Amino acid sequence: MADSTTGTVSPPRHDPKVTIALRRFAISITVFNIFGYALLGFEQPWVWPFVALLTGYTVEIGLEALAARLEHRNPRYAGQGFRGMMEFLYPAHITSLALNMLIYVNDRIWVMIFGVVVAVGTKWVLRAPIRGRLRHYMNPSNFGISMLLILFPWVNIAPPYHFTENVSGAVDWLIPAIIILGGTMLNGKLTGRMWLIGAWLITFALQAIIRGIIFDTSIPAALAMMTGTAFILFTNYMVTDPGTSPSKPASQMAFGGGVAIIYSILIIAHIVYGIFFATAIVCLTRGLFLWGLHFSNKAREEVEAKQRAAAEKNGGRPAATLPPAPATATLENVGEDKEVVRT
To answer: N or C, which end of the chain has less CB nearby within 10 Å?
Structure first.
């Protein structure tokens, strides 16, 4: 979309496949919240999801408008009518509902609002250069939850039972089965994060067994966490965020396995809520790696530019040159997505 005054084009936010994934994810989490409050036993006040959405929409639109003004381009939500605005707000919609659904702050709604602001706003602050563009690397919902747990020690994760508190019998099995089926279809066909899920699950199971052997942890209890609805939601809809996880199979496996390993270290150190902190640590490590890769490539380009200048000064005779950069030292090959996904 070209700016009417400067001609600057606003880059596309998502490719069509990612937009479809975001739409289905937004629909899924909305339906889940409706059933959660009506039938399942969600314990937050029923008005809070609307407050969270209003907060998330306001922050997302406000920061995009500010960025567009500073970059002399049109906002990404402008020019495509209601559908364009709706697609622009998918990530904020998902982040806001997920954060409110997964935390419990008693009756202190301002703490929940603060968490949403942090979660949505971090996409504009914690960024790393990928193929010439700054893109966020911290999982927004996970980062917002982690910051609330650190800054407000009395904040708790929503109790796992509230996902199935008011149901029993076969429905207790049906709910996680639907989540697994929907998540598998979403990640298998659209986000392409099945390698990440596989590495995460296998490594998580292995670390539970190893902790049992070395530290005398109850292996069945450690493995039982994998059967909970909260764990299934995290596996299918949080750790697999395509905007903050790699896309290449090897990188996905390193990411998923890394989260499980860091989780085990935190648990051994008796640090609670390790699953959220582990994800934040791995995302931060990935962001630092991307910055390191950026500066490394930039330094190499400067050296090569000096060598070319020296060669021209010597009458065209080539100066000593560095060996060509290996394929793994380019941003194109570090396993990053081509489009940013702000979820």
So the answer is: N
User: Alpha-carbon distance 27 to 104, whole Å?
Assistant: 23
Decide if 300 is inside a domain: no
d(CA 117, CA 115): 5
Instruction: Give pLDDT, residue 314.
Output: 77
Mean pLDDT of 275-295: 95
Q: Are 260 and 110 in contact (CB under 8 A)?
A: no
How does the average pLDDT of the chain come out, rounded? 87
Of 87, 142, 176, residue with least CA distance to 184: 176
Alpha helices in 216-324 (DSSP H): 219-224, 229-237, 249-268, 274-313
**Is 67 inside a domain boundary?**
yes
Q: Tell how far CA 41 is from the center of its chain.
A: 26
- What pTM was estimated for this model as a whole? 0.85
Which band of pLDDT confidence, cut at 50, 70 and 90, is reported for residue 205? very high
In the beta sheet, which residues pair with residue 156?
A: 104
DSSP 305-341: HHHHHHHHHTTT-----PPPPPGGGSGGGS---SS--
Give whole-number Cα distances, 230 to 180, 213, 312, 314, 340, in Å.
12, 26, 63, 66, 26
Is residue 130 predicted with pLDDT exceeding 60? yes
Based on the number of CB atoms within 10 Å of its own CB, is 173 exposed (0-12), middle (13-18) or buried (19 or more)?
Answer: exposed
Token pair listed for 125? 């602050």
Residue given tokens 């966490």 in the structure block: 225
Residues 6 or more apart whose Cβ sits within 8 Å of residue 327: 333
Q: Considering its fold, how many domains does the chain have in total?
A: 1
Q: What is the DSSP letter of 9?
A: B
Owning domain of residue 57: 16-289
- Note whether 22 and 14 are within 8 A (CB): yes
pLDDT of residue 281: 97
Q: According to DSSP H, which parts of 9-47 are helical?
A: 16-35
Answer yes or no: is 312 within a domain: no
Between CA 216 and CA 206 the distance in angstroms is 14
* Rounded mean pLDDT, 272-277: 95
